[in-house]
């Protein structure tokens, strides 16, 4: 037990350094209130009021709490066996919130569990907060050499997967743009084209990047949803696909993961009715 305490103290120092570096590079506003989900065993969640006070000192507020039985997470190799973990991560993704594990060592025991949770959240632009100081799990590095190596291997597989999907998506997109340019002169509409010879459904049609935003927004959103939700491509990789074929945001900027997220979350929707969009330079 003493050895594990020393290990987690060392990990905390690494996380603190990563947190400082992340805030410095991102320009994160330290006064902004962040909504988080509390996750731990039953004994941890019973400290809700005390932990809420800790979170408040870091400008965070606990929105929901999920608990499992003491020893349940550490006693399994497969986190899908722990319903509270699945529920917490799912709620976090749906609500765009980080997950906070204030007692990672006692509650999860296994370092790989925390790595898996953090990498799932990071795929959705979120993160895992660790210890009572709410340190963010590392994104570029790792908690230690082994953790870094394992994370790098997973990211290498993801990058290869995303590159292959992006390349195929770009081919489909080029084909659809050619069809759009050769089609009618009226506004482009969202349509699902027929399946290919293998029976697989092809992506939604997209207009030319030159089509005005009010007509381009809806087909573009349809394609992005297909790429992210049906193909499992990350928002960052989706942004690279859009940029590679000349697509831009309504203000003419290159797409980024953050602006893809805004598109999916309706931040580019018109203020009055469909088609009456007024670009907002602050939104990208």
UniProtKB/TrEMBL annotation:
Domain of life of the native organism: Bacteria
Species annotation: Mycolicibacter hiberniae
Full protein name: Uncharacterized protein
């Amino acid at each position: 037990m003493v050895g594990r305490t020393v290990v987690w103290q060392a990990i905390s120092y690494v996380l603190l350094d990563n947190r400082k570096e992340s805030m410095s590079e991102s320009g994160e506003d330290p006064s902004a209130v962040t909504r988080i989900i509390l996750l731990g065993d039953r004994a941890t969640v019973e400290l809700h009021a005390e932990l809420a006070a800790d979170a408040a000192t870091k400008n965070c507020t606990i929105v929901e709490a999920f608990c499992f039985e003491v020893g349940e997470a550490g006693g399994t190799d497969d986190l899908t066996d722990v319903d509270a973990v699945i529920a917490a991560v799912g709620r976090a993704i749906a609500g765009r919130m980080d997950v906070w594990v204030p007692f990672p060592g006692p509650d999860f025991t296994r370092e790989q569990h925390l790595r898996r949770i953090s990498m799932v959240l990071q795929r959705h632009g979120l993160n895992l907060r660790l210890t009572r100081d709410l340190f963010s799990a590392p994104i570029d590095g790792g908690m230690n050499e082994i953790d870094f190596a394992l994370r790098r291997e997973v990211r290498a597989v993801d990058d290869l997967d995303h590159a292959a999907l992006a390349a195929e998506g770009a081919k489909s997109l080029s084909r659809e743009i050619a069809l759009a340019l050769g089609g009618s002169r009226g506004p482009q509409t969202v349509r699902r084209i027929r399946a290919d010879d293998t029976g697989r459904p092809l992506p939604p049609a997209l207009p030319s990047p030159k089509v005005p935003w009010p007509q381009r927004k809806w087909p573009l959103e349809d394609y992005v949803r297909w790429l992210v939700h049906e193909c499992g491509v990350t928002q960052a990789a989706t942004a690279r696909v859009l940029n590679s074929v000349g697509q831009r945001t309504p203000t003419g900027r290159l797409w980024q993961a953050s602006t893809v997220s805004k598109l999916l979350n309706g931040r580019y929707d018109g203020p009055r009715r469909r088609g009456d969009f007024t670009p907002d330079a602050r939104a990208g």
